[in-house]
Amino acid sequence: MTASKTDLLNRDLAHLVHPLHNRKLHAAAGHVWVKAEGAILTDADGKEYIDGLSGLWNVVAGHGRRELAEAAAKQMETLAYCSGYAGSSNIPAIDLAERLARITYPSITRFFFTSGGGESSDSSFKTARYYWRLRGKPEKTKVISRQWGYHGVTLAAMSATGISSYWPMFEPRVPGFVQIPSPYPYRYVAPAGVSQGVAAANELEQAILKEGPDTVGMFLAEPVQGAGGVIVPQDDYFPRIREICDKYDVLLVSDEVITGFGRTGKMFGLMHWGVQPDMILFAKAITSGYFPLGGIGITEKIAGVLDTGEIPWMHAFTYSAHPVGCAVALKTLEIIERENFPAQAVEKGARLLRGLQQALSAHAQVGEVRGKGLMCGIEFVQDKGTKAEFPPADQTGSKVHAAAQKRGLFSRLRAESVFCLAPPVITPNATLDRIVEIMAESVREVLG
Q1: Residue 168 has what DSSP assignment?
Q2: CA atoms of 388 and 411, how far apart (whole Å)
Q3: pLDDT string in tens for the chain (448-residue length)
Q4: Computed from CA positions of residues 108, 110, 115, 119, in that sequence, does the dihedral angle turn out positive or negative?
């Protein structure tokens, strides 16, 4: 006899602690996903939902891709696990590093593999510290990131994350992490005579000078801020950021955990602005969520300095360069290139964004509908003229999300004010159009 959804939730509540744990919410409106196909999730009660956020921005190839399961099974039968520590390697890891070197930025040539984005963030901090230490500049340890940036929830990654709701339960944060304002075109106020993008980028220069250039090791930024509300920077923002990093000898680190592998309409996010980073973080789409894998990519300049170290680089993960994860990643990259995910993201993202803007932009409580590639954000405001937000206690975003779920769409919010959408790249046009219909109906239900 198949267990009911109620029984499953009761067992869950008795024994599981969840990420972003909220027992009350889980008990009242929890789902127990039992299967998925394409862009559709099925709950234990049999109800189907559009996967409006590709799991957690990661299932770009959609659910139920048999060739990814077969790639994992084949590798498990051949070599399920081996250490990736110095002195050990495996063929899928070697093949994956070579393939990444061909498709990433020309500046990025060497790779270290992790199990996900948070580990990748921590790996970037430690790599930067070691690099500067070998360069004879051990004081360059500080990391500058941005408000509304999301970089993970390990203690160090959380300290780089610029979403303040992640901090209070775990203070004090790790010292040496500094946030500057996001470029946030909808809200950033630039001084007269300076473009918004350049003014926002100049916040980095001011922070470097305040902290002391000899103490700042890296600037960490998502090309498009994802979990922070799908914030798309101005076209002149990142070129100016690159100039500032070069001027003060600061590493520019691009967090491509969400934007990597085609989601924005380019294979990697900074490619939109012709900017080359010194280091990248990646995870999520590299395996389409079918296996936990992430990593960092570094320039030959950084790698060359690391190669000169006379003692081992004491940074390691048990599952670094996991052969099964690397095999799944190789097959995922094959799908991404074969089915031209960047081009699909451009075309389908334009359709989704256009539909959402036509349906919602005129609404008195929708401040902005924005996006880049197949990433969209709908920002709710109490007053369109002043851009004042609804009080968090009103739970406006949660009410819209509940209305959307009632109609068969599941996604996530940023702090009650931004509804985020990033469906799988393989999502059919008819399903994208249904997302627009659901959002329009849900906003009308909640906000009139």
Answers
A1: G
A2: 24
A3: 578 999 999 999 999 999 999 888 887 889 999 999 999 999 999 999 999 999 999 999 999 999 999 999 999 999 999 999 999 999 999 999 999 999 999 999 999 999 999 999 999 999 999 999 999 999 999 999 999 999 999 999 999 999 999 999 999 999 999 999 999 999 999 999 999 999 999 999 999 999 999 999 999 999 999 999 999 999 999 999 999 999 999 999 999 999 999 999 999 999 999 999 999 999 999 999 999 999 999 999 999 999 998 889 999 999 999 999 999 999 999 999 999 999 999 999 999 999 999 999 999 999 999 999 999 999 999 999 999 999 999 999 999 999 999 999 999 999 999 999 999 999 999 999 999 999 999 999 999 9
A4: negative
Q: Where are the domains of the chain?
A: 31-52+340-447, 67-338
Fold agreement between 31-52+340-447 and 67-338:
no
Cα maximum dimension of the chain: 70
CA 308 to chain centre: 33
For 337, 349, 354, 374, 433, the CA distances from 346, given in Å and listed in that order, are 14, 5, 12, 7, 16
- Whether the CB-CB separation of 327 and 72 falls below 8 Å is answered with yes
> Is 38:62 a contact under the CB 8 Å cutoff?
yes
The DSSP 8-state label assigned to residue 372 in this structure reads: S
Strand partners, 424: none
ω before 392 within 30° of 0 (cis)? no
Structure tokens at 367: 């401040």
H helices, E strands: number in the chain: 14, 15
Q: Would residue 390 be called left, alpha or beta, if left means φ above 0 and alpha means ψ between -120 and 50 degrees?
A: beta
Query: What architecture does CATH give domain 67-338?
Result: 3-Layer(aba) Sandwich (3.40)
First to last CA, the chain: 44
3-state secondary structure of 43: strand
Confirm or reject CATH 3.90.1150.10 for domain 31-52+340-447, answering yes or no: yes
Distances (CA, A) of 59 to 288, 292, 425: 4, 12, 8
**H or E element, residue 217:** strand 216-221
Q: Phi and psi at residue 378, in whole multiples of 5°? A: -115, 115
Q: Taking the alpha carbons of 91, 93, 98, 100 in that order, is the dihedral positive or negative? A: positive
